[in-house]
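Hello K.,

You asked for the raw outputs rather than the summary table, so here they are, unedited. I folded two proteins back to back in the same session to keep the settings identical. This is the first:
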Amino acid sequence: MKKKLTKDEIKGRGFKYIGRTAWLWTIPGILIYIIFRWYPVLLSFVVSLQKYQILGKSTFVGLLNFKNLISDPLFFIVFRNTLYYTALSLALVFLPPIFVSILLMEMRRSVIAIMMILWFIPVGSIASVVLWKWFYNTQYGLLNGILVSLGLPTSGWLNDARIAMLCLVLPGLIMYGPSLIYIASIQSIPEEMYEAAELEGAGFWQKIWHITLPRLRPIIAMLLILAIIRNMQMFNQAFIMTGGGPHDVTRTVVMYIYRMAFQRFKFGYATALAVVLFFVLLVLIYLQRRYFKENPDI
């Protein structure tokens, strides 16, 4: 006769079965992640130490590519431009949607519904960049046309080195409204918290500062990391609108990587530049995690 299992033995076998099933479904995803994410990262470190040839034989050059980066004046220019673009984008595109979403939630539900429908309308990013390039056109563009109709002097826009980078950031401010993620997070805050605050005599701004913003802090922290990574890898806007000009004031790190790899075929040099960008992003993310925690009490 088979031995009758106890409840604890049945429970233990059930956990083992669930554990094996979980690994069975997880391992393919882990393998795909390693092959398509971490293997290219590790390979880039190897390529950065070589004079890499796609068809010919690659030769090991050690840290020569990194030494050449330091002696390249354009290396510091593109990093300065990229950091400047990131700072502008965070100030003008990342922060305003937070407060606009908070203010929007104070409006009527019909207005909120209309705005959410407008934000759901798909807009092709490349098509919108091309459209804004024509808006900035100094001869036929919409913006200069508006200035002329108002009797104001026209601007060089993308051809003006002083405001070219700002012109790359502004479309993001106008086209991408408050994030639906913020709105969903605000809607999840219990109304009882606001009602209790009102009974204690809290005003509108006090409720935002002590209730809304602390509840949004984890979402803001997560989206801030994603925004830093996205902005530090900006390519489409500058490549389509300015090509890096005028006078390299809008040339970013990723544009320079593209130029060295696919126009000059210096793959080792371009990969070394990508490795430096990788470590710069690590430092920025560390600083963000260090000084802007999801939970300030930790």
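The second followed immediately with the same parameters:
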Amino acid sequence: MSNLMLGIVLGLWNGVSMVLNLSGIGVRTTLITGVIAGACVGDINMGFQIGATCLLMSIGFYTYGGATIPDYITGTLFGTVIAAKSGDYSTGLTVAVALALLMTQMDILGRASTTVFQHLGDAALAQNNIKKFEAVTLAGVLPWALSRMIPVVLGMLLLDQIQVLTDFATKVTWIQNGLSVVGGLLPAVGFALLLSYMDLTKYWPFLILGFVLYAYAGMGTIALALVGLAAGGLMMGVGGAK
């Protein structure tokens, strides 16, 4: 697939999925996006790896109160494409983290642009023009979609230049080390935030059990999730368990 087609396909996905998320259809995730990007470049496994890692980095981050957070979905798109073309997972992840942070600026621009449609909607209501109000309200999703779509289209068209910048970033030791530290820190912060929501004073045995199964028994995430599901079922008395 050419860079232009990659830009169109992945740009449309990034923009449309953003609108779907605003509608309550949560398909804009790093895993789904990674698989789609991987399919476009012929390496679904790489897309899944980049998407899974970006998912861990994004755990605990949410736009509480309208806060701007790194856009790991867009980062996953670029990271998957770069990793597949270069054959280097680490290079792709470096791009994913860097662009996820850079996309915070586009998020701010997209959010700020929606105020134009809000004022137009207020003016339409003042004139009791309901049809115009509805049209303007629906058009208010455009900044959200375009702020995710345009960077992907332009980025894919300039993919060769992005590769040059990535090569530079990976060759400069302090940049590479800094991104590695950030990449390792963000998942830890995400897990720490999740743990802060748990009532560990009451459920601390489950925390210890999960740690032992992971650290000493070598169980993977899916296996641990199934154990947690079974434990939760026992606690809730599902299937007649007491």
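The CA atoms of residues 17 and 27 lie 6 Å apart.

Happy to rerun anything if the numbers look odd on your end.

Regards,
P.
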